[in-house]
Amino acid sequence: MATVTFKNDPTSLSGELPAVGDTLPDFTLVDTELGEVTREDFAGKRLVLNIFPSVDTGVCAHSVRKFNKLGERHDDTAVLCVSRDLPFAHARFCGAEGIDRVTSGSTFRSSFGEDFGVTLEGSPLKGLLARAVVVTDTDHKVVYTELVPEIGQEPDYDGAEAALK
Questions:
Q1: Assembly and interactions (predicted)?
Q2: Which domains does the chain have, with CATH numbers?
Q3: Are 45 and 78 contacting, i.e. CB atoms less than 8 angstroms apart?
Q4: pLDDT tens for residues 94-109?
C-alpha cells in the first residue's frame, strides 16, 4: 500500500498506482453532463490522467489549467481530470475558466479510487483521491506514473509531457 503526506502527516492509500507497462485498468466515471466516461472513449489516443482531491483547491485548479495547456499542444492526446468532486463542480470550474481541452470525470459513483490505488485512507481528506498522474500510449499501456508525495505539492508537469514524446 502506498503512502503520501497531507501537511507532512503520512496517510496510506487504498493500494498502488498501475505500474509502467501495465494496461490501464477499465474505469467508468461521470462526466459533466451526468453521462459515463470510460477508457474506451479514448481509443487510439494517448491519455493523461490528472488525478486530484478537489477542483475547489488552488493546487488542483492550477493542475487542471496546466494540463489543459498540455492538451492544446498535443492533438493526439486526451487529458482526463479525475476527482471525487460532483460533475457540477467540474462543469462550473471549466466553464468559468474557459477550459476546453480536458475531459472531467467524477468518481462519485465508481470504484476508480480503489481500482487505481489512490483513495486516501486517513487524514482530514479521507475518502478523497491522492494527487497522481498516469500517462498511457495509444494502446493504453502505462508509460509514466507519478504519485505526488505531498498532497499540497504540484505534479511534475514536465515529466508527464516528456512521457508523451
A1: Homodimer.
A2: 3-163 (3.40.30.10)
A3: yes
A4: 999 999 999 999 999 9
